[in-house]
Write a structure and sequence with these properties.
It is a single chain. The chain folds into two domains: about 120 residues, Galactose-binding domain-like (Jelly Rolls); about 220 residues, SGNH hydrolase (Rossmann fold). Helices cover about 25% and strands about 25% of the residues. The strands form four sheets. Strands 1, 3, 4, 6, 9 and 11 form a six-stranded antiparallel sheet that branches. Strands 2, 5, 7, 8, 10 and 12 form a six-stranded antiparallel sheet that branches. It is α+β, with helices and mostly antiparallel strands. A hairpin with a 2-residue loop joins strand 7 and strand 8. The protein is built from eight helices and 19 strands.
Length: about 375
C-alpha cells in the first residue's frame, strides 16, 4: 500500500503544472548559452550532430531537474558531469528523455557532456535540455586558456581503456575518450581539445589490410570531414583554431604486413603536415610515435619530421617518441592490448612536459 501511494504521488508530481504553467521546459540544442567543442553540424535550430570521439558541450543551469535529449544508436555513449563530478554514463535513446537528476540543489550548476565513443559506434544528435519550468541556462564562464587538436587512431580514441585486462575483447562500454592520453594531456595543460581519430586507420594503410596502400579513406582524408562516417560535408577549419596540433599516426600502417613503402608512407605524412599548415599556419605540431609500434615506423616518422623541418624551414615541428617499453603488459593494457587508464596516463606524462616546455605553458603540477 505504501509503495502504491508513493507511485501515485510521483506520478502527480510529474504531470501537475508548476506555478509558471509548466513543470519542465525544453532548451533547444542551438540555444546561445550552450557551447560546443569538436566537429558538430547544426542542421537546424533543434539539434547538434556529431560522430567523432571526444566531442563535448557545456553550459550552466539552475533548478533541481536535468534531462537530455540524445538521439542515435545505443553504441554512442557519453559521460555526464555536473559541477565537475561525473554523474552518469549514458547511451543514446531514440527521441526520448534521459533523466540525469531530479533532486539537485536549487543553486546554479555546471553541465558537461563528453562523447566517449568513436564514429563506428554511431552518429548522435543532441536535441536539447529539459529543465524546471522556472529554471534558466547560462553560458559557460570558465574557458580553458589553450586549444589542442589531436589526430590519431585507437590509442587517441581511448579504445578499450576501461577493459579489465589485455585479454578482454572490445565492448562499447570500455571505450572512453575522456580517459585517453589526449584528453588527460589537455586537462592537465588547461586546454580545450578537438579529437579527430578512428581505430585501425593509418596514414596510407589500415590495420590488417592485404594491400600496402588501403583503398578505403585513410586518416588524412577523413581529417577533412565534419563527420568521420561520410564525406558529404567538409569541415570548415576557420570554425576552430588550435594553438597546437598533435599527430599520433603510423601504428596501423606497420602493425601487420605488408608494410607500405617508405617513400609512400613519408609522402602521405608530409601531405598531412602540409594540410595542417595550410589551415592553421606555422603553429607548433608534435609528431608522436608509439607506444604500440617501433621501427620501421618510428625511424620513418623521425626522419620525415627532420626532412620537413629542413626543406620547409619549419622550426615549429617536433618529434616525440613514446617507447614501447613504457607500458607493462600486465598492468598498463585494457581490451585487445590497448593502453588502459594507467597506460594512457603514462603516455600523457611524456607528452605533457614536451608541450609545456616548447610552448611555455604550465602543467597542472607547476600551476600556482
Amino acid at each position: 500500500m505504501k509503495n502504491t501511494l508513493k507511485f501515485i504521488l510521483l506520478t502527480l508530481i510529474l504531470i501537475l503544472p508548476s506555478c509558471s504553467g509548466k513543470l519542465y521546459k525544453k532548451i533547444n540544442a542551438c540555444d546561445s548559452s550552450i557551447s560546443y567543442v569538436g566537429r558538430y553540424a547544426f542542421s537546424n535550430s533543434m539539434e547538434a550532430v556529431s560522430d567523432w570521439p571526444g566531442t563535448y558541450f557545456r553550459c550552466r543551469f539552475t533548478g533541481k531537474t536535468l534531462g537530455l535529449l540524445l538521439d542515435g544508436p545505443s553504441g554512442a555513449q557519453f559521460n555526464v558531469f555536473i559541477d565537475g563530478k561525473q554523474k552518469k554514463t549514458i547511451s543514446c535513446l531514440n527521441n526520448d528523455t534521459i533523466w540525469i537528476s531530479r533532486n539537485l540543489s536549487g543553486r546554479r550548476h555546471k553541465l558537461e557532456v563528453y562523447r566517449r565513443t568513436e564514429a563506428f559506434l554511431g552518429r548522435s544528435a543532441f536535441k536539447g535540455l529539459i529543465i524546471d519550468g522556472k529554471a534558466k541556462v547560462f553560458k559557460w564562464n570558465d574557458l580553458p586558456s589553450h586549444r589542442i587538436e589531436f589526430i590519431g587512431n585507437s590509442i587517441t580514441c581511448g579504445y578499450g581503456v576501461e577493459g579489465a585486462s589485455r585479454h578482454d575483447k572490445f565492448l562499447p562500454e570500455t571505450e572512453n575518450n575522456y580517459l585517453s592520453y589526449a584528453s588527460v594531456t589537455s586537462r592537465d595543460l588547461d586546454a580545450d581539445y578537438f579529437i579527430v581519430a578512428h581505430s585501425g586507420l593509418g596514414i596510407v594503410r589500415h590495420y590488417g589490410d592485404s594491400l600496402k596502400v588501403s583503398v578505403d579513406p585513410q586518416m588524412p582524408v577523413k581529417y577533412l570531414r565534419t563527420f568521420d562516417g561520410t564525406d558529404s560535408l567538409k569541415w570548415d577549419f576557420d570554425r576552430w583554431k588550435p594553438d597546437v596540433v598533435v599527430v599520433n599516426l603510423g601504428t596501423n600502417d606497420f602493425s601487420t604486413q605488408p608494410y607500405p613503402d617508405k617513400d609512400v608512407f613519408q609522402s602521405g605524412y608530409i601531405n598531412l603536415i602540409h594540410t595542417i599548415r595550410s589551415n592553421y599556419g606555422y603553429i607548433p605540431v608534435f609528431c608522436v610515435c608509439g607506444p604500440l609500434i617501433g621501427d620501421p615506423c618510428l625511424s620513418y616518422i623521425k626522419e620525415v619530421t627532420e626532412k620537413i623541418k629542413v626543406n620547409d624551414r619549419d622550426d615549429n615541428l617536433f618529434f616525440v617518441e613514446i617507447p614501447k617499453a613504457l607500458l607493462n603488459k600486465d598492468e598498463d593494457f585494457g581490451s585487445d592490448e590497448h593502453p588502459s587508464v594507467r597506460g594512457q596516463q603514462k603516455i600523457a606524462d611524456i607528452l605533457i612536459p614536451e608541450i609545456a616546455s616548447k610552448l611555455s605553458w604550465k602543467a597542472s603540477a607547476t600551476k600556482e
